[in-house]
Amino acid sequence: MNTSNQISFQLSVLRNSDFAVLNVWHLIRFCGCEQYSGTFKFRLILMKFGIAYICELVASKKNNPTRKIKTKIQDKMDKANFTFQKPKNAFLASIVDDYFYIDTLVSELNPEPEFIIPYPRITFGYFFNHPFTATNQTLNESAIVNISISKISTQKIIVQPNSDRIKICGAHINPFALAYLTKTPIHSFPWLINTEDLFGDITRKFIKRLDKATDTETMFAEVEKVFLDNLLVRDLSLITEAVNIIENSEENIEISKLAKELGVTDRTLRNHFYDYVGCSPKEYIKIVKLKKVAYQLAQQKDSLTEIAYDNQYFDQAHFIKELKEVTGFTPGELRKEIANFRFLQF
Question: How much is the pTM?
Answer without folding.
Answer: 0.73
